[in-house]
């Protein structure tokens, strides 16, 4: 990998760790909220409150707001692929699997992103990435178990979470083609605004929130944490890491997120963690390390210098 920059600034290492806690914590917050609220209501509150929290930054930085449908179209599509579909699938999946399993499935996002980008000619599917994809799929099989019963509730939950990662892959393709020159704060805020509008319609039509009982204080706090910490603050840290250390380095967060989610799920939500789940998570993590290539390159450089 000639010319690759493997350096991450000390400040971005801290941001990366915090981001893994915030995004890994999103599975914990959802794990609390699904006990009281249906999926579409949770996703609506997440994106709507996050959009409200980010809108002041648009005014602060004097970013121009789109005034036509053509101006909003890139954000509408991005909202559908990056928020509405995957968030709804993940939350629905978490009604059937633990937060730890959902976070491990979410760690497959880089695998499907690379497959989507390769299928549409945006990136080459080199040997290292093919190996990582196959190893990642093996990790999913280990996590689920090798029995072929896909009619069980847990299997459906896993499939929903995997479908969410495919949607994230298509959102990466769309962002690369349509949002490359858009300021990061604008991209995050405008897609969240569009997401809030779409989720509002779905929430009214399907969940009928006026018929739902009042959620508990724990659920309300979880929703605030999901929107303010995991979404708004998470986006800000995400773009800061990209600015300081590059888009490639921020992918390392997917290796750390399952650790946070599984730990919180075990100690706070009293979720069981099996040895098979741990092994599956480690296999998926090793797949991401191979696909990323930085650690292997560093090892090769050290061996060559020795």
Q: Residue share in helices?
A: over 70%
Choose one word for the global shape.
globular
Mean pLDDT: 84
Order of helices and strands: HHHHHHHHHHHHH
* Overall radius of gyration: 19 Å
Estimate what percentage of residues fall within beta strands.
under 5%
Class from helix and strand fractions: mainly alpha
State the distance separating the first and last CA atoms: 19 Å
- Biggest sheet features: none
Number of helices: 13
List the main descriptive attributes of the protein structure presented here.
single chain, 306 residues, mainly alpha, 13 helices, globular
Task: Explain what this protein looks like in three dimensions.
- The protein has 306 residues and is mostly helical.
- 77% of the residues lie in helices and 0% in strands.
- It has 13 helices and no strands.
- Helix 5 crosses helix 7 (153-178).
């Amino acid at each position: 990998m000639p010319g690759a920059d493997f350096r991450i600034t000390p400040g971005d290492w801290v941001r990366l760790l915090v981001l893994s806690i915030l995004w890994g914590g999103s599975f914990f917050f959802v794990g609390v909220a699904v006990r009281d609220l249906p999926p579409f209501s949770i996703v609506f509150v997440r994106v709507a409150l996050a959009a409200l929290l980010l809108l002041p930054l648009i005014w602060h930085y004097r970013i121009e707001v789109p005034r036509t449908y053509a101006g909003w179209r890139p954000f509408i599509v991005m909202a559908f692929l990056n928020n509405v579909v995957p968030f709804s699938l993940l939350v629905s999946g978490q009604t059937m699997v633990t937060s730890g399993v959902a976070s491990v499935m979410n760690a497959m996002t880089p695998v499907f992103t690379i497959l989507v980008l390769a299928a549409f000619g945006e990136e080459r599917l080199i040997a290292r990435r093919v190996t990582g994809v196959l190893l990642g799929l093996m990790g999913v099989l280990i996590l689920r178990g090798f029995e072929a019963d896909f009619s069980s509730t847990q299997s459906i939950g896993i499939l929903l979470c995997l479908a969410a990662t495919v949607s994230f892959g298509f959102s990466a393709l769309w962002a690369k083609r349509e949002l490359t020159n858009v300021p990061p704060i604008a991209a995050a805020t405008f897609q969240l605004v569009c997401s809030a509008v779409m989720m509002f319609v779905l929430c009214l039509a399907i969940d009928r929130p006026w018929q739902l009982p009042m959620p508990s204080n724990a659920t309300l706090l979880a929703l605030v944490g999901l929107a303010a910490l995991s979404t708004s603050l998470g986006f800000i840290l995400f773009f800061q890491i990209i600015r300081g250390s590059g888009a490639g380095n921020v992918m390392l967060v997917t290796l750390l997120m399952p650790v946070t989610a599984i730990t919180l799920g075990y100690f706070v939500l009293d979720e069981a963690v099996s040895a098979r789940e741990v092994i599956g998570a480690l296999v998926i993590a090793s797949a991401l390390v191979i696909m990323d290539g930085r650690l292997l390159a560093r090892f090769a450089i050290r061996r060559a210098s020795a």
